[in-house]
Amino acid sequence: MRTGLVNLPLHPGRAPTWLFNRMVKLVSAISDVVTNEYGAKELLNRLADPYWFQALSCVIGFDWHSSGTTTTTCGALKLALKDSSLHVCGGKGATSRQTPSEIESNPFNLNTDKISEMIHASKLIAKIDNSCVQDGYQLYHHSFIHDNKGNWIVIQQGMNQSYARRYHWDSNNTDYFNDAEKIACDKIGNRVLNTAALESAENRRTAVDLINDGPEHLLKYFKMPSHHEVLACDLNKRDLEVLTNAYNIQPRNYEELISVIGFGPKKVRALALISDLVFGAKASWRDPVKYSYTHGGKDGHPYPVDKESYDNSIQFLKTAVEQSKLDDHERINAIKRLKEFL
């Protein structure tokens, strides 16, 4: 299920090498503490929480609300968790398209059915947030992280002209169409089409029925002049080919429909609007919003990164993990006691 969304302003620049190298070390140390105390599944659960992930990005020194918190933190995770109890696949840009092959590398020797299931989840979730949720954000980052039992999370991000939006998913519930999304954001979208929402269930069923009845009869709905501006999507030859392919498959449900190759935002929007306008099967157009909290980082807000303190934190956590493995939990217990002062 989707566990949350976050909106972040687009900022230029990248983490300097001296900082990113420390980020990898600190992420590794924090991950070791969480995994050692609570297990790999708990680390997955926390990374799936948009607020915990945002806090992690703040702690390792990135800008508190920059779009780079996603790509940089995921990049640090991929290096920090290499050869660990978690496998990080994908990343930014062209690297995101390597996700299926990286899942197939199968370092934990999972069975083929589980590998196929995870690849399907990765592709479907990208399709949902890029096509079913039409909020003006084009995906450019996709990270898929899983453990040795096949539990997984997805952290992906889209962008428009001035903002990026991060989406979090986990495998605790593989009902991909639900109403559980949370948005942490200071930008409220108007008229955001969301065919994945719970209230769009009837709209999804109608869309599947429309395709299974045959794509040719859809043409008349696109030629209704009084609705042309609302639909804003004329079918062309390529569109008809995609719809025909979907008809030949005879999808059993919406998941199978949007999984058809070439079935992107335009076709999703067209079927949603036809289902609504003609058959009264309404889709969700709401965009619930909350905002994330703040912290300083590499650009000096609220203060420049203190290298000495940063290195001390890394060393303290590493030592705490090493001592706990020797049945000396003094430092780990000291960390736990800190929450009493927060």
Task: Give an overview in words.
This protein has 342 residues and is of the alpha+beta class. It has two domains: 2-189 and 288-305, no CATH class; 198-279, no CATH class. Helices cover 47% and strands 14% of the residues. It has helices at 17-38, 40-47, 50-59, 68-80, 99-104, 112-132, 201-212, 219-222, 228-231, 237-249, 254-258, 265-279, 307-325, 330-337, and strands spanning 2-9, 86-92, 133-134, 138-147, 152-159, 163-170, 183-184, 193-194. Strands 2-4-5-6-1-7 form a six-stranded mixed β-sheet, sandwiched between helices. It has a two-stranded antiparallel sheet with strand order 3-8. A hairpin with a 3-residue loop joins strand 5 (152-159) and strand 6 (163-170). The chain is elongated, with a radius of gyration of 22 Å. Residues 182-186, 224-232 and 288-296 have low confidence and may be disordered.
Task: Describe what is shown at a glance.
The chain is 47% helix and 14% strand. With 342 residues, the chain is α+β, with helices and mostly antiparallel strands. It has a 6-stranded mixed β-sheet, sandwiched between helices.
Task: Offer a few descriptive terms.
single chain; 342 residues; alpha+beta; 2 domains; six-stranded mixed beta sheet; two-stranded antiparallel ribbon; 47% helix
From the N-terminal CA to the C-terminal CA, the straight-line distance is 30 Å
Q: Compute the number of helices.
A: 14
Sheet with the most strands? 6 strands, mixed
Structural class comes to alpha+beta
Provide the domain count: 2
Task: Draw up the topology in text.
Elements: E1 2-9, H1 17-38, H2 40-47, H3 50-59, H4 68-80, E2 86-92, H5 99-104, H6 112-132, E3 133-134, E4 138-147, E5 152-159, E6 163-170, E7 183-184, E8 193-194, H7 201-212, H8 219-222, H9 228-231, H10 237-249, H11 254-258, H12 265-279, H13 307-325, H14 330-337
Parallel strand pairs: 1-7
Antiparallel strand pairs: 1-6, 2-4, 3-8, 4-5, 5-6
Helix pairs in contact: 1-2, 1-4, 1-13, 3-4, 7-12
